[in-house]
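Hi support team,

I submitted a single chain yesterday and got back a structure, but I'm not sure I'm reading the C-alpha cell output correctly. Could someone confirm the output below corresponds to the sequence I sent? I've pasted both exactly as they appear in my results page.

Thanks,
R.
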Amino acid sequence: MQHATPAAPAVRETLERLLASETFGRSERARKLLRYLVEREQAGEADRLKGFSIAMDVFGRDGDFDPSTDAVVRVQAGRLRELLQHYFANEGIAEPVRIAIPRGGYVPSYELNAIRLPAGEQPAIVAPGLPEEPASAQSAPLMSPAASAAPGPSLTRHLLFFWGAIAVVIAMLGVLILRQGGDVLLGGGDAASAVETGAATGSIASPPVETLPLIYIATKASGPEAARVAASLRTGLAGFDTIDFIGRDADGTHDPAADATSFVFDILPGPAPSDVTIELQNVATGRVLLSRNLTAEDSAPDAVEDSIANILTSTIPASGPIYGYIEQSGIGTGLTECLALNDRYYLDQSAATHEAAYRCLEKLANQGAKSSLVYSELASLHLETVTDHYAYPSGATIEQAMSFAHRAVQIGPTSPYAHRAYGYLNSRLGNTDEAIRWMRKAHELNPYDLGMAAAYGYGLIFAGRYSEGTPIMAHAVETFSGHPTWWDYGLFVGAFMLGDTRQAAIASESLRTTATKSHYLAARLIGAKAAGRDQLAGQLADELVAKFPKFAANPRATFVDRKYPADLTDRLVEALRAAGLGNAS
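Hi R., thanks for writing in. Yes, this is the structure output for that exact sequence:
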C-alpha cells in the first residue's frame, strides 16, 4: 500500500464506483453516510465530521440528540467500516484508491493501492496547496489522460488485474459452494434459504464448539420510558446463561466474524409519544426476529420488569427465536445445538428426545467442556433417567447426577441454571430445605427469567409450602404462554392443594400434549373429575391402566418414590380413587 494522498478526482471516481457496487447496493444508509463523509472531507470540512453533526445531517436527528443514549452514528459507522473492508477485499480489490474510516473518528483516509502500480513506476503525488505540474507520459498519474494515451502496457496491466479478479471471485465461489454443501447450485436445497445462510455466514470460519449467541443493545429512543426499558433489558440480559451479553451499547466495534450469531435489541420510539418499541434482529442479515411495542403502562416503574421478563423469557432461552434462527440457518455450535435438543425434550418428554439431548451434552462433557450449562443440564437429564426409567444411559445413578450438578456449580458459581439443577436434584431427593435454598438463589440470580421463577415456585410447592409457591407458579404460567408442561403440573398440584379446583382443572388440561408421564395422566384424570367431565375421566382412567399398570395398581408407591410430601400423596391417592382408578391405595 502506498501511503500517499491520492488526487481528488481519483478519490471521487473511486467513491462513485463504490456507491454503485453490489456490496453497497443493499444499504442506503451506508451509501448516504459514506458520500457525506467523503464529500465533506474533500470540501475541507473534516473538522465538522463529529457524531453530533453526522446525526443531524445524515440521520435526521434534531438538536436534542444525545450520543450517550442514541448510538445510531457509532452503529452505522461500524457497519460502514465492515462494508468497506468487504468491498476492497472482493469487488474493489483492484481499485486505484482505497477509502477507509479509521476507528476513533469519522474522517475518511485514502491510500493508493500498490497492487495497481507497475514495477518501477510511482504515482505523481501533489502536495496539498501547491499547483499541479504538467506530467509527461512516463510520469503521468494513474487515470490521467497521458496514462490512457499509452494503450500497450496499460491494457496488458488491466487485463492481468481483470483475470486476477476473476480468479479471486471463482475461488470465493468455490469456498462458498463447499461451505453450503453444493445445495444451491446442485438443487439440493431451497435457494432463498441458502442465500440468507450465505449472508449470515459469509466467509466466517466455524465458531468454537461452546460459543453462545452474542447479544447487544442499541438505544435509539429518548425519554424516561425508554431509559427504564433499556435499564431493565440490560439487567435482565446479564442474568441469562444461554447467551453472551455485551454490556455496552452496540457501536459497530463488535467482531464481524461473530456477526452471524450476533443479535441486537433496538430500543426505538413507539407509535405513540410515550410508547417504546423493542426490535430484535440478527446483525449479519438484519432479519427482525421480534418486534414488541410497550405502552406507557407497560413501561411504568411497577410494570416494566414484568414486561421485559416476558420478552426475554420468550426470546433468550433455547426455545426462543434466537436459537430457532441459528438452527434454521445452519450456523449452530455444538453447545447451541445441544441446548436446543435439551429444550425439545422438556417440551416433549419422550425417551427419544431425552436420549438425543443426553448424548449431545455427554459428547461435549467427554471433550472437556468448560460451560457450566453442559453439566447443569446433564445433571437434570441424568436424574430423569433414574426417576423415569429411561434406557439411556444405562446404570444411571443419583450420585452421578449430583456429581454433574456439583461440577456445574464449580464452573459457574453465579449461574442460575447450575443453581436450579442443584435445587431440582435436592427436591427429588427429598432434601426440601436445600432444594428451596438453591432454587431461591437461582431466581435471585436472574429474576427476569420466568423459568427460574417457575423452578422456585415448583420447589416450594413440592416442599409442602403451597400458599407460597402457587402464586409464583401462577404468575410465571400466566405471563409466559410458551412455557413447558412441567410448569402446568406444578400449578396443578399447588392449586389442587389450595382447593382451587377450577385453576387445577385448567392447569391439568394443559398437560394433554404430554401423554408419556403417569403423573401427568393422573393429574388430567383428577382435573376432569373435578370439572364434572365424567366421560373423559373414564377414558383417562382406562388409559392409565393400559399404559401404566404398575402406577394404576399402586399410585402411592410412585408418589412416595418421587418424594412427594405426605399430605400431597394422601390427597392425590384419595382423588384418584374418587375418579375411578380401581382400588387406588
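A quick pointer for reading it: DSSP finds 26 helices and seven strands in the chain. Let us know if anything else looks off.

Best,
Support desk
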